[in-house]
DNA sequence: TTCCGACAGTGGGGTCGCAAT
DNA sequence: ATTGCGACCCCACTATCGGAA
C-alpha cells in the first residue's frame, strides 16, 4: 500500500467531526490493507509508530525539506527506513538521523510530509487515536468492538491484536487472555471533588491511600519476576528490591497492581521528584538504590495461581491480595458501607494527609478491573489549593488554539514589589475565556520574544494547584504542580495578589 | 429530549541519559 | 564539564460525539 493513501485518509479523518465517519474511513482502509501492511498501517492510523520513539523531535525536524512532486513511497518502505533511523546510535548519530529523516521527507509529497511529521512527533491531530482505530478494526473484520477492545487491553498492543484478527478472524480474539509475564493496561481513576461526592456516587466502597509514587505492575512466574510501568515499559532491571519482595510472597504465579514509592526512615513519603529520579535511574542502579531505596505498596490482584481475577468484584480481588501479600506491603485502606459511613471515610482522608500522602482513591467494592479504562468506579480525591496570581506573559497556542493566547506565565508578589514566576498553565480555560484573554492580554502587551508575549502585570487570575515542588528553573526556587485557571479576578488589583512569602509559609516542607 | 461516559487535544514540571558543544 | 534534546514519569481540564436514560 502507498503512503499517500494513508495520508489522504488521515486528512479526511481530521476533516470530519463525526466519530462514526472517522471509524468508517479507517475501517475501509484496514479492509484494503494487505496482510504484510497490517502491522504498519494499523499503528500509523492510530497515530503511533510500531517501533515506538525514534529519538527524533522537533529540533531535528526543524529544517524544511523540498517535497517530492509525485507519491512513490510504500508504507513498508517507510517502516523499514524508520526502523533503520531508530537503530542509529553513538557519536555523530544525531546528524546521521537528521540526514536519513531528511532523505525520507524528500521522497514524500507535501501531504505525506505532514502525515510523517505528525507520526514522528506523536502529534497526528486527526481526532482519532487508538480508541477510534480499535472501532475501525472491529468494523473492518466484523468483530464486536468490545471484544477487540478487551483483547487490546490484555495484549497491551493494538498491533498484535490487529494482525491476529485480520489473519484468523474474530474467533481468534479468544486467544487473548491475561497471561503472567505479559503486561495489561492498568485501570485508571476519575477525579471527585470530595470524599462525600465519591462515596455518594459509589455506595459500598474501599477508601485507600493515594501514594505519590509510580504505578507498577508486578508479574511473577516461579523465580521469574517482571515489572512494568503504566505505559507497559519493562523496568525490572531498575528496581531489584521489588523483584526481591515479589519472590518472598507466598504465591508462585501472580500479577499484582500497585505503586512504588520512596519512604524516609520514619515511613513518610519522600518527594515525588526523589521517587521519579530513582525509578528513572538505569545506569548505576546499585548506587541509586542505596541513596533512595523504594518500597512496593500493592492494592489489587489481577491473577493468582493461574486464575484470572479481572472480572471478579474488587472485594474478592482484594481478598486474594490479602491472602498473598502481608499487610505492610499493602496500601492502607478502610471499607465503608455507603454515605452513612461518611465520617469514617473523611477521617481516613485526614489521617492519610497527616501521614504525608497526597489523598485517597475511593473504589466501588463490586466493580471489576477495567483494564486500560478510566472506569467510573475508581475516584481520586486530593485537596486543592488556590492562589491569586498575576499574569506576567502568555504564549500563542497550537492546533485548535492557534491564534489564541493560551499558556499563561504566572507570578506571585515579591518583597521588593516585583513578581516571581511560579510556572505556566494552559488548563481550565473555556473557549470564551481564551477569546477574552487573547483580546485583553494583547492590550497589555509590552513586547514579545518568539511565541511569548510579555504583558504589563495587571491581570489577576485565581489558580488551583496540587502542591509545590522544588525548582531550579524558577526564581523563587519552587514551582506550582498541576496549576490550572479557575477564573479571572477583575475585582482584584495586582498589589492584592498572593506573595511568595505566604506561599512558602503554606508549604514549609518544600520551601528552600 | 436530555444527560453523561469516553476520547482527543492542549500542553505543564521534573529527571535521566545521551550526544553535541 | 556543561548544555540541549528526547523519552517518560506524574498530571487537569474542556469540547465533542453518540449512546444511555
UniProtKB/TrEMBL annotation:
Its EC number is 6.5.1.1. GO terms for molecular function: DNA ligase (ATP) activity. It catalyses: ATP + (deoxyribonucleotide)n-3'-hydroxyl + 5'-phospho-(deoxyribonucleotide)m = (deoxyribonucleotide)n+m + AMP + diphosphate. The active site is at 210 (n6-amp-lysine intermediate). Its cofactor is Mg(2+). Keywords: ATP-binding, Cell cycle, Cell division, DNA damage, DNA recombination, DNA repair, DNA replication, Ligase, Magnesium, Metal-binding, Nucleotide-binding. ATP binds at residues 208, 215, 230, 259, 299, 374, 380. NCBIfam families: dnl1, PRK03180.1. This is Probable DNA ligase.
Amino acid at each position: 500500500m502507498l503512503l499517500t493513501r494513508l495520508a489522504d485518509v488521515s486528512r479526511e479523518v481530521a476533516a470530519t467531526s463525526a466519530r462514526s465517519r472517522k471509524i468508517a474511513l479507517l475501517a475501509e482502509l484496514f479492509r484494503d490493507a494487505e496482510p504484510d501492511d497490517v502491522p504498519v498501517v494499523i499503528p500509523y492510523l492510530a497515530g503511533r509508530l510500531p517501533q515506538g520513539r525514534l529519538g527524533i523531535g522537533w529540533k531535528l525536524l526543524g529544517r524544511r525539506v523540498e517535497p517530492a512532486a509525485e507519491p512513490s513511497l510504500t508504507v513498508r518502505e517507510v517502516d523499514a527506513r524508520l526502523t533503520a533511523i531508530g537503530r542509529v546510535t553513538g557519536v555523530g548519530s544525531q546528524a546521521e538521523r537528521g540526514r536519513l529523516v531528511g532523505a525520507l521527507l524528500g521522497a514524500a509529497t507535501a501531504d505525506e510530509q505532514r502525515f510523517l511529521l505528525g507520526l514522528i512527533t506523536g502529534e497526528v491531530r486527526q481526532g482519532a487515536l487508538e480508541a477510534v482505530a480499535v472501532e475501525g478494526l472491529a468494523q473492518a473484520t466484523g468483530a464486536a468492538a468490545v471484544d477487540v477492545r478487551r483483547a487490546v487491553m490484555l495484549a497491551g498492543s493494538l498491533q498484535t491484536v490487529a494482525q491476529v484478527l485480520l489473519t484468523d478472524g474474530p474467533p481468534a480474539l479468544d486467544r487473548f487472555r491475561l497471561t503472567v509475564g505479559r503486561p495489561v493496561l492498568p485501570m485508571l481513576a476519575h477525579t471527585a471533588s470530595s470524599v462525600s461526592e465519591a462515596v455518594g456516587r459509589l455506595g459500598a466502597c474501599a477508601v485507600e491511600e493515594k501514594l505519590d509514587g509510580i504505578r507498577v505492575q508486578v508479574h511473577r512466574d516461579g523465580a521469574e519476576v517482571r515489572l512494568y510501568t503504566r505505559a507497559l515499559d519493562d523496568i525490572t532491571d531498575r528496581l531489584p528490591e521489588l523483584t526481591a519482595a515479589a519472590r518472598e510472597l507466598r504465591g508462585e504465579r501472580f500479577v499484582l497492581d500497585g505503586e512504588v514509592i520512596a519512604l524516609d526512615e520514619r515511613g513518610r513519603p519522600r518527594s515525588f521528584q526523589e521517587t521519579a529520579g530513582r525509578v528513572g535511574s538505569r545506569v548505576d542502579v546499585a548506587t541509586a538504590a542505596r541513596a533512595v531505596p523504594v518500597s512496593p505498596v500493592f492494592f489489587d490482584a489481577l491473577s493468582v495461581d493461574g486464575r484470572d481475577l479481572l472480572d471478579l468484584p474488587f472485594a474478592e480481588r482484594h481478598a486474594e491480595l490479602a491472602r498473598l501479600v502481608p499487610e505492610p506491603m499493602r496500601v492502607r485502606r478502610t471499607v465503608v458501607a455507603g454515605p452513612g459511613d461518611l465520617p469514617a471515610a473523611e477521617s481516613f482522608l485526614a489521617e492519610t494527609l497527616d501521614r504525608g500522602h497526597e489523598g485517597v482513591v475511593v473504589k466501588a467494592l463490586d466493580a471489576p478491573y477495567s483494564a486500560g479504562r478510566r472506569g467510573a468506579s475508581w475516584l481520586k480525591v486530593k485537596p486543592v489549593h488556590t492562589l491569586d496570581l498575576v499574569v506576567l506573559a502568555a504564549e500563542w497556542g497550537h492546533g485548535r488554539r492557534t491564534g489564541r493566547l493560551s499558556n499563561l506565565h504566572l507570578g506571585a508578589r515579591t518583597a521588593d514589589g516585583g513578581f516571581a514566576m511560579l510556572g505556566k498553565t494552559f488548563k481550565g480555560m473555556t473557549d470564551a475565556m481564551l477569546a477574552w484573554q487573547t483580546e485583553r492580554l494583547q492590550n497589555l502587551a509590552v513586547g514579545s520574544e518568539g511565541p511569548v508575549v510579555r504583558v504589563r502585570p495587571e491581570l489577576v487570575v485565581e489558580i488551583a494547584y496540587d502542591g509545590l515542588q522544588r525548582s531550579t528553573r524558577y526564581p523563587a526556587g519552587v514551582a506550582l504542580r498541576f496549576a490550572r485557571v479557575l477564573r479571572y479576578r477583575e475585582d482584584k488589583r495586582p498589589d492584592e495578589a498572593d506573595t511568595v512569602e505566604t506561599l512558602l509559609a503554606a508549604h514549609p516542607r518544600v520551601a528552600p
